[in-house]
Amino acid sequence: MDIERTVEVPQNTKKITLNKRGDITYVEYTYAREYKEDKRYNIPKRKTIGKLSAQDPTRMYPNKNFAYYFPDVELPEEDEGPVRSNCLRIGSYVIIRKIIQDYGLDEIMQQVIGKKSGLFLDMAAYSIVTEDNSAQHYPDYAFNHPLLTAKMKVYSDTTVGDFLKSITFDQTVAFLNLWNEKRDHREKIYISYDSTNKAVQAGDIEEAEPGHSKDGKKFPIINYSIAYDRTNRVPLFYEDYPGSVVDISQLQCMLEKAKSLGYRKCGFILDRGYFSKGNINYMDKNGFEFIMMVKGKKKLVHKIINDNRGKFEDVRQNSIRQYKVYGTTIEGKLYADDKKDRYFHLYYSSSRHASEQEDIESNIEKERRALEKVCGKVKEMDSGFNNYFTPVYYHEGQEDQLLQTVQEKSSVIEEEIRYCGYFCIITSKKMTAREALTIYKSRDESEKLFREDKSFLDNATLGVQKNEVADAKIFVEFVALVIRNKIYTSLLDEAKEIDSKANYMNVTSAIKELEKIEMTRMGTGDYHLDHAVTKTQRAILKAFGMNEVSIQKEATEITDALKEEKQNG
Questions:
Q1: CA 270, CA 281: separation in Å to the nearest integer?
Q2: In sequence order, what DSSP letters do the residues of 454-467 get, joined into one string?
Q3: Model confidence over 438-496: pLDDT tens digits?
Q4: If 0-12 CB within 10 Å is exposed, 13-18 middle and 19+ buried, where does residue 555 land?
Q5: Which helix (H) or strand (E) holds 344?
């Protein structure tokens, strides 16, 4: 969206070019020149920075490229923006505002961001409702929704982009400090910690590096992790760090951050990617408990399975019906010089056994078909197939050697199948196998956070070009995640309370239903609630302690706010 007021055309005749197309004259800026050896002259590389004013050829309407190439030029104040829609969708806004107030996010943001704190929170609400995070689409959302921005002012995408650029690292730190000050640090909690990564497809982001992308794509990535209080079901803090840093190395930095934010009486629930002797010793040293999954292929796990096989898998008192597994607990040492006793919780699931064995058989069959296609055509088998197959060659070791056939490594396959269905959790504190599994399974909520972040907040990829904008978008994203997580847990609790499997008791469906609660502008220019709240909408609102009376009250407040905006011009 172009700014609706003009600026002077930059007085740089060598870099400014006017390009008339039809009735519009575009102003272009030459940002570089590329020398072509075959033609022996420079080819200019240009970007359009705006449109020439038809009334005054010395002035132009700038676009967002103008602000990038001429950052020192003070852009004019914008008009009030587009005319507000005659129909405002208020349902999602109402519950999001309530969560913001309940959490005190409005007060925190006022301290951290200042006068544009409302715009920050509107950006978070926008990403939740529309499942989008592009600044260029924000005005479309603002056009037909009430806003938390002062006077419900509708800002253009240019202003939103400039606002994101203005957010500093110190502000993100200040937010995390204030947010975590609100937590009860005397309470014993378990913190679930997990990470993901974000592809970076454009621009110059310092932390974007080749790394171990979890979706297998080859874009440069940055890593992103969240600490989640599973006791109170709320995200606590986040970290972003270079794409080449692996999870196992980052854990100790996270533990230091947890300490600096005042967390002492806590345990950490960790995935298998964080298992290392150094990390365990570090947690011991700092007095942190841990509950950690261990990779099934580790020799340590195989020894525990072999020592306990047949002793617990069909004993009814070891049944954990909630998760359809059998479990037992063994006390022991993690490594030879371990100074503490650990608790190894071993589990077996017959359905998991069948699934894992089927995966093995499927992989073997895929590899066999691939190898059969190249038999008689290649000199040797690719080393990637060595796990399950032994090659047989024509004229082995000679110049005309060819792959003849392959034979299964039966002992390797049988050994792998022997461990199907088993998994192990290690805890630093004594507890039962049932307790350990129940606490570890609570990680499901933090894992859902990452799925929400990538799928429902449109944050799998950072389509930005500058570090400060990337940092700001991750900051907004975390606040949006805090709010969306509360929507998720509130709906989940309400569904359990009414023992309902209603298909609208999930975040996406609930927001779509709440978006149908609308206010319409009447002939007087004032907005009024369009229709009564439906039965489905009442059920959703109940999850947040609200009802049709709450909606009526909110609608009146919105009407009054818009009247004040109109009166103040």
A1: 15
A2: IIIS--SEE--SSH
A3: 998 877 765 665 565 555 444 444 444 445 677 888 899 899 999 999 999 999 899 88
A4: buried
A5: strand 342-348
